[in-house]
């Protein structure tokens, strides 16, 4: 009888171990599967990846005096091809400008000049007022006017004194393609 008891106890012990092992495997798999959404939450969403992406635009058809609007990081970006008269007007020091040398403004170092651009003919700027984020209106002969609170900006996005906007319009990081036909916004060369 002892051998039957031994066999039964070995069988019972084996069943218990198999059940215990099966339960542990099932519990481990459950924990792993439940962690997948948690780990995925750490990864950037497709919307985040899109906002970090750069934008490429063909500017070869843009005529002097024309402006095109692009979207980068969910914000409007204006590309203005300035005429020679517009460029000449920027060189005349305007005593009405709050920050004429753009020392307090946001722009790449390559655009910290009177034209606030890499090539003075092309002006690239975020189309949002620095006061409360309204969308200014382009006025070809004078610059930009914010319809919300009356801030005025010249054709280099520099704010005039007395306006509620505290700073000049923001110039995003950008560069031109090698052939000069495209503009890449969101990355600096």
Brief overview:
With 189 residues, the chain is an alpha+beta fold. It contains three helices and nine strands. The chain has helices at residues 2-42, 46-52, 84-91, and strands at residues 55-58, 67-72, 75-81, 122-126, 137-139, 143-145, 152-153, 174-176, 182-185.
Low-pLDDT residue intervals, each spanning 5 or more residues: none
Instruction: Kindly report how far apart the N and C termini lie.
Output: 87 Å
CATH homologous superfamily caption of the largest domain: Rieske [2Fe-2S] iron-sulphur domain
In helices, the fraction of residues equals: 25-40%
- The appropriate CATH architecture of the largest domain is 3-layer Sandwich
Biggest sheet architecture? 3 strands, antiparallel
Question: How would you describe this structure to a colleague?
Answer:
The protein is an alpha+beta fold and 189 residues long. The protein has 2 domains: 1-43; 50-185, Rieske Iron-sulfur Protein (3-layer Sandwich), CATH 2.102.10.10. The chain has helices at 2-42, 46-52, 84-91; strands at 55-58, 67-72, 75-81, 122-126, 137-139, 143-145, 152-153, 174-176, 182-185. The strands form 3 sheets. It has a 3-stranded antiparallel β-sheet with strand order 1-9-8, with no helix packed on it. A hairpin with a 3-residue loop joins strand 5 (137-139) and strand 6 (143-145). The longest helix has 41 residues, at 2-42. The protein is rod-shaped and about 110 Å long. The termini are far apart. The mean pLDDT is 85.
């Amino acid at each position: 009888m002892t051998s039957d008891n031994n066999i039964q106890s070995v069988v019972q012990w084996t069943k218990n171990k198999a059940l215990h092992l099966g339960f542990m495997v099932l519990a481990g798999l459950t924990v792993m599967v439940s962690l997948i959404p948690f780990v995925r939450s750490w990864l950037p969403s497709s919307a985040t990846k899109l906002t970090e992406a750069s934008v490429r635009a063909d500017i070869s058809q843009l005529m002097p005096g024309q402006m095109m609007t692009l979207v980068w990081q969910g914000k409007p970006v204006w590309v203005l091809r300035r005429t020679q008269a517009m460029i000449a007007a920027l060189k005349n020091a305007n005593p009405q400008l709050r920050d004429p040398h753009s020392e307090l403004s946001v722009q790449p170092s390559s655009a910290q000049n009177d034209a606030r651009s890499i090539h003075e003919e092309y002006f690239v700027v975020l189309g949002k007022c620095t006061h409360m984020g309204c969308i200014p209106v382009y006025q070809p002969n004078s610059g930009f006017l914010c319809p919300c609170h009356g801030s005025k900006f010249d054709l280099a996005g520099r704010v005039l004194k007395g306006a509620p906007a505290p700073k000049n319009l923001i110039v995003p990081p950008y560069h031109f393609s090698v052939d000069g036909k495209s503009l890449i916004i969101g990355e600096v060369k």
